[in-house]
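Bug: C-alpha cell stream looks shifted between consecutive jobs. Job 1:
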Amino acid sequence: MKRLCLLAVAALLTVTAASAAPPTHPLPSFVGLAIADKNRPEEDRALDAQRKPAEVLRFSGIKPGDIVVDLMPGKGYYTRLFSRMVGSKGKVYALQPAEMDKIAPKGLESVRGFAGKEGYANVTVLVEPVNELKLPEPVDVIWTSQNYHDLHDPFMGSPDMAKLDKSLFDALKPGGTLIVLDHAAADGTGVSKTNDLHRIDPAAVKSELTAVGFQFDSESDALRNPADDHSKGIRDPSVKGNTDRFIYKFRKP
C-alpha cells in the first residue's frame, strides 16, 4: 500500500510539473551560430530585439543544405542569417523585383556587398521583373519579410497576384514552404491598406496563396503585438519597429 501511495504521488508530481512548465524545443545549434556570426554588422544586431531571430528562425524550419529564396531581401538582414543556416551545402538566392530595385537601390547594394564573398559564398543576387520572377532551380523555402504587401502597390506595376503567387508555387519543390512575415492590417481591410499604411490583412494573404494551390501549414505569434491597433502607418514613431506582425507558413503539396 505504501509503495502504491508513493507511486501515485510521483505520478501527480510529474503531471503537475508538466502542466507548470510545458516542454520547449531547444534552439537548433545552426540557428544559434547564425545569430552569433561575428560577421553580422552592428546595424543588424541592433534589430534583433525587435525581430526576435531565435523564435522566428526556429519557426522557419530552414536547415543545413536547403536552397532558400529571400524575396525582397532589403539590406540582407535575413539573407546573412539564412546563408549561415544552410551552410556550404546550401544556397541562398536574394531575389529582388527590378521595380523595387529602381526605387530602393541601397538595400540591394548592401546585399551585393557581401553576396558571394568570404563567409557568404553561397549567396547569389537575382534581379528580375516582378511579372517574370524565375529561379535557376527548384527551391526548398521561399521567404519574404515585411514586403508581401508591397507587391500590391502601384510602384510595383500592380502585378497580377494570382500569376505571381503561382510562379512562387511552381518554384518550390514538392513539400517546399513559403513563409510570409508582414505588418498586419485590420481584419476585413483586405489589400486596401498596402499603399498608405504599408499593411495587409492576414486573411487576404491566406486567401491569395491558397487560391493558387498552397496549403496553409501554421503560424507563429512571435512578433504579434496586441497593443498595435492597426490604424497607423508602419513608420509612425509610436509603432515603428514594433508593429503587429504575423508569420504564416504555407506548403506546396
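Job 2, same session, no restart:
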Amino acid sequence: MKLQTKIALESKQHNQIDYNSRLLLIGSCFVENIGNNLEYFKFQNLQNPFGILFHPIAIESLITNAINQKEFSEDDVFFQNEQWHCFNAHSKLSNTNKDTLLKTLNSQIQLTAKQLNSSSHIVVTLGTAWLYRFIETDTIVANCHKVPQKKFLKELLSVDEISESLESIVALIRSVNSSVSIIFTVSPVRHLKDGFIENTQSKAHLISAIHQVVEHKKNLHYFPSYEIMMDELRDYRFYAEDMIHPNNIAVKYIWEKFKEVWINLEAYKTMEEVDVIQKGLQHKPFNPDSEAHNQFIHRLLERKEKLQSVFPHISF
C-alpha cells in the first residue's frame, strides 16, 4: 500500500556538488533552508548577499549590479522609521548609519561579483511573481521596507516577462562564468498576503517560466522543491505554526532529496565526519573538568585537524 505520491527526481547530475565546489544561493527565504544545510556540512557557499530577494527582477538587478561593479551612493538609499534602507536590498542590511549601509552594500556587491566568477553551482529560488513599483521613480523594488503601500503599484509578472528575466540572468552569469551549473527552484512558502488565488497564480507563472528556460544540455536545471512540499508532504504536520512555512522535518526531507540528486556520493563520507564534529562541538558535558571530557575534546580536535588538512577551507 502506497501512502504517498512521490515526485520523480532527476538522476544524478554529471556536475555534482562536492567539497571543492563553490556555491552561490540567491532568492527567496527557502534558499536559506538549503543554504543552511550546506553551511552546516561546511560546503563552500555564499547565501543571499543582499538578503532575501523574492521575485526574479530583484535577482536580475543584483546580478547586473554585481557584474557591472555598481557603486552605491547616497542617491541609492533613503531614511524611513529611524533607519537607512535601500530598495535593492532586504531590510537585514538596513542600518541606523547611512555610511555603514553604503559600505555594506558595496562590499556585498564585490563579494557577489567574486562569487559569480568563481562558482561551480548557482541556486536561484523564486518566491513570487508579484512585485511592487515605486511610483515616485517608476522603479521596481526588491523590498518595500514598510514604506506606505499607497506609494507603490502592485503588479503581477507574466510568464513571458519572468522567462525573459531568467534568460537575462542566465546570459549575465554566463558572460563571466560559462561553465557554471544553474539550478532553479520555486519556494514552497505560500505568499498568502497576496491572497490564496493570487498566490497560486503567482507560483504557476514562476513554474511555467522556469520550464521555458531550463535545458540540461545548457547546464540549466530545475529542482522540484515546490512540488515535493505540495505533493509528497501535503499534510499540516509538515508546516510551522504559521501553517505557511515548511517546518524542520519538511526542510530536512527536501534537503535529503536535494542531496540525493546533487551531492556527489564521494562527499557523503566527509559530510558524516563533519556531522560528528558538529555534534561534538554542541555537546554539553556533565563535568567539564573530568578526564573523560578532556579525552573527548582531544579526540575531537584530532578529527578537526585531520579533516582540515584535506579541506583547508573548512572552519568550525
